[in-house]
Amino acid sequence: MKTRKYKIRNKPDNERKILIKPDADIELNSVFSRIGIPAKKTFSPDSFQLKALDAIKHSDCLVTAPTGAGKTWIAERAADLIINLINSEVSTNSDISQNLDNPELNHNNLHNNNLPKKVWYATPLKALTNSIYGQFSKTFGKDKVGILTGDTKENADAAIIIGTTEILRNQLYDAMHTGEDLNCDLVILDEAHYLGDMERGVVWEEIIIYLPVRIPLLMLSATIGNPDHIAGWLEAIRGKKCHIIQESRRPVPLYPLFFHPSGTLQPLLKNAHQPGKKAILHKKTLEFLELPNPPEISLPGRLPKFYDILRVLKKFDLLPAIFFLKSRSDCDGAIRLCNSDLISAQPERKAALARRMEELVSVTPHLARHAQREQVEQTAAASHHSGQLPAWKVVVETLMSEGLLDAMFATSTVAAGVNFPARSVVILNSDRFNGTDFLPLTASEFQQMTGRAGRRGMDNIGFAILLPGKFMDLRHAARMVSAPPVDVQSQIRINFSMVLNLLLSHSPEQIRAVLKKSFASYMLNRGKQGKYARKVYGHELEFLWEDFLAHLDFLQEEGFVKEDGTLTDDGLWASKLRIDAPLMVAHCLKYGLLPQNDPALFAAIMASFVNEKEFDDESLLKQVLPKILTKEFLDLRKGLRPFAGRMIRKGFDAPNLYLQPAATIFSWAQNEPWEDVVKRSVFAEGDLARLILRTAENLRQIAGLTFQFPEIAKTSEEAINLILKEPVVTFYKEL
């Protein structure tokens, strides 16, 4: 699908002024008349919510429902049901009791009846984990809720644990190794469509495969095109029913609009809300597309004047709005194209925004003098993207969720994860950058974005507004409005950490049986999905098994696994390194290639293992850098070269180590001011904070090897304390 390219009028800029005058097509009068706040009423759960809650009492359950429909309510009530099941209640609850009486499904539950019940709520994103943790803490009380991510560990013995999927997967590894039952009575997997995520999906698949059958599984998602396949797979490997609960109705109806460059709002679609009729582009939108030289909303290569667009939305009561833009720089540039007209007309609201801003940024001087603070206070508009310091993003999210902003300019990544809907979402691009290329938005991605339009209990109707432009294919976007969600495909793959951890408790042949429980195996003979699975994994998973054997052979050659398939002493401690480059780090530890007595230097070297970007180290080496850092880094790279060569010859990736992240972390660990470190580095604030937090997590796992490497474990602990400090530590402590 090609992005539509509009012809550009050949006129000088001074003759091509863009004039935007607020107006609306007469057809929208009836739609706009529905705008308003719904009457307050006592909460009454929807039918699908009650069905899901009933289903999880005696089976697994997969819930698919639009964003904002109330999936989190199901999770809250299910958690409440479980943690309040003390002995007397278990014996009187017929559904739970019947399930407990089934020894095949609950082989470990009977002897745990006297123990407090526990719930694990897993999410794919730290931001979402933090959000759910805050919500559940208010509902159940902080004493009953804990949080576990790579950055944060609080109240780990609580009745309800909110954490990332990787942490839950790691706990399942540990439970299989020790032979102990996972101390849990319900697992909730939020954003379940991540099962099909190219990078993270393998973790979800592992959790489902390893999870004890006795533990009920509740999966929640807004965008799964083939829930029947997922439920069928669960039933096949877990031996019990998985109920599919589907709800297609949005709690707040969505109306798509087209923003004409003149400032006139028009219906985007015809038959958008007529059951049984196919939604097609409205004739006035088609007329615009068929113009030989359609008017433009901005000059080529420039962003629109957002103050004009906000003026239109304000006139028709369509604020607050979330604008989805293609890049971080566009988000930051957008707030500079807003003005103070709207917020200045509401002096009380402007004062409230300033007061709340002061409360939020007072936790650290860096936030108090943030470069965008004045812009936010003067325009009631903010940008939000991954290049920002996490603590600043929390400030923006809080202001938006409390209704103090008119607009937030964000990249599409904000669509999944944090819950701060608006009355309208405004979409400027019909494609999305996936890290490598710009590809057309999928139905699931588009619906994640439009799912933020309309606040339950605050809006009668929500709006998705499409702006024309070079990167907007209106025909494609219109199709995505009502297109079905994308099917989820298996993303299981073999890696060294998986092999080491499975060998803790399984023989190679037992691992082969585990792989046959994969979603890929289930999908082999199922239509189009089966064709994909056979191509990637083989007709009998032979490609997947060959990949496992290749990993196993290399581990044996390097002395981590014995010939009989059991782990050597080195393999045992290496299995605990669930980090970015576990085998390379294990090799360094095994042969003493890492600095042992300098915490700042050790943190710097470890940062080079977690970095994801490519850099030009040649130019950096010409700069004046600390000799100790340069020597240690070059010695490490030289020492690793033979091992990396062996990995590459065997067909495995051996990540390049770069000096740039090491030099940046070294400066930070030596107490250089944050602003100076950011200025001299090539990292945006958010990227640097993420590098620091991931480095700290890698260090934390090495610090756990106190028996095998006591000296370097101590150095790791000291290194963590050097890098986790303001303004990064603000996010680390509070979230």
Explain this structure.
The protein has 735 residues and is an alpha/beta fold. It folds into four domains: 47-246, P-loop containing nucleotide triphosphate hydrolases (Rossmann fold, 3-Layer(aba) Sandwich), CATH 3.40.50.300; 252-482, 3-Layer(aba) Sandwich (Rossmann fold); 492-575, no CATH class; 577-735, Sec63 N-terminal domain-like fold, CATH 1.10.3380.30. It has 34 helices and 20 strands. An eight-stranded mixed beta sheet has the order 1-11-10-20-17-14-16-15, sandwiched between helices. An eight-stranded mixed beta sheet has the order 5-4-6-3-7-8-2-9, with helices on both faces. Strand 4 and strand 5 (153-154) form a beta hairpin. Helix 27 (599-610) packs antiparallel against helix 30, helix 27 (599-610) crosses helix 32 (685-703) and helix 32 packs antiparallel against helix 33 (710-723). The longest helix has 23 residues, at 627-649. 46% of the residues are buried. The model is unreliable at 1-16, 86-112 and 731-735 (pLDDT under 50).
Summarize the structure.
This protein is of the alpha/beta class and 735 residues long. 46% of the residues lie in helices and 11% in strands.
